[in-house]
Amino acid sequence: MGKINLIVMKFGGTSLESAEALNRVAEIVKTRRAEAPFVIVSAMGKTTNNLLAIGRDAAEGRMAEARANLARLREYHLREAAGAIGAGGRAALDEILQTHFCEMDRLLERIAATRRLEPREFDELASFGERLSSQIVTMVLRRAELPAQHLDARSLIVTDERYTRATPLVDEIRVRLNEAARQLSHRVPVMGGYIGATEDGITTTLGRGGSDFTAAIVGAALGASEIQIWTDVDGMLTADPRDVPDAHRIRMLSFAEAAELAYFGAKVLHPATLLPAMDENIPVRVLNSRRPSGTGTRITADPVPCTNAIKSVACKRGITVVDIRSTRMLMAHGFLRNIFAVFDAYETPVDMLATSEVSVSLTIDDARRLEEICKEVSPYAEVSAENGQAIVCVVGDNLRSTPKIAARVFSAVGDINVRMISQGASRLNVSFVVAEAESRRAVQLLHKEFFKELDPAVFDAGAN
Q1: With a threshold of 0.70, does the pTM exceed it?
Q2: What is the mean pLDDT of residues 134-138?
Q3: What domains sit in the chain, N to C, each tagged with a CATH number?
Q4: I need a surface site. Which of 6, 192, 425, 454 has the fewest CB within 10 A?
């Protein structure tokens, strides 16, 4: 399907966290009305985190606390939404909140009865954030005189039954979205991200950060001219501003560079976001909803010429390094095959890897099933693990052709102990592991080394 005059606009939780923010979103959408916007929204503020905390309270028998926190969450939605919708929409808002929060209360009762927050109940509970925000944003847009039409993502985003991390069924989604788009000509669709449903109608979620993924799926299915990710920063930066306050905005990135940065800690984008956009060659733009006049960061398929050796320094914290040494004389292929089969069985992705014939060191960012993994490999390997680590990564297309990059990287962080080193198969990144306590300083030292001068065509020296 060729490109059409349609843009997908995804707004994250910080872009929806207050009445002021909701009104700002309405103005942003209004200015782009001529581009036929399709709006995707996350849950408001920190709603998803709060919902899951409430679910855990119920599962652990603290029902009074769960209900008190649920009441606070309802009051938050009422206060902020009412401020943006106005008196004329209050009755409809009250009905929406009554319906959804009664459903949530009944769900909490079921969770409390079993004393378990099962994956299926996890998804059902987590879905309420986007279900609420999408209806609220629809009302806010209508108040701004936009012909908004709410769409229930569960009727359009069809997934498998892998609860908490469901896989979208792309062909079926494409059919349903195109049919919905034909029926919504000249209207502004509003849909929650992150959520979907199985073919039997059971609610699922796409994993944390999945609202970005939803935006890319919709954009690819409808042949959008651009996918916009609206957040609370000016775009992709040369480093996390919490680590480097004077980090610079990157005007342009390639898909490959952006994907590496997203995977290795740049939280502006979800790592899976770019895949549908890459498949359909649809540009992605990261923009700041608090400064909507900015041009953000544009991400395209083609490499972006740049005089700087790298584009950005990323850091992924909360890493566990796992060392596995064979206690048998296994050949390398047998040993590695067994190890990776175990990690795959326990759905625990590996970030970095260093191997020898009888040992392997690897990093994971989800250690919840590490104890089970260790038990599984104990018959033929010794396992040790170290928490509190971080992956620091320099990313850029020029790494492929610039000599002595590794020397510059490790010279810059010379007095910091490096645990593991890796160059990605794409040759777009050089990564290494350090103690989390040293990670901020490592990022700052690398940023100072590689961004003494800036290519003005690629970086905005004034952004911070």
Answers
A1: yes
A2: 98
A3: 7-232 (3.40.1160.10), 312-460 (3.30.2130.10)
A4: 425
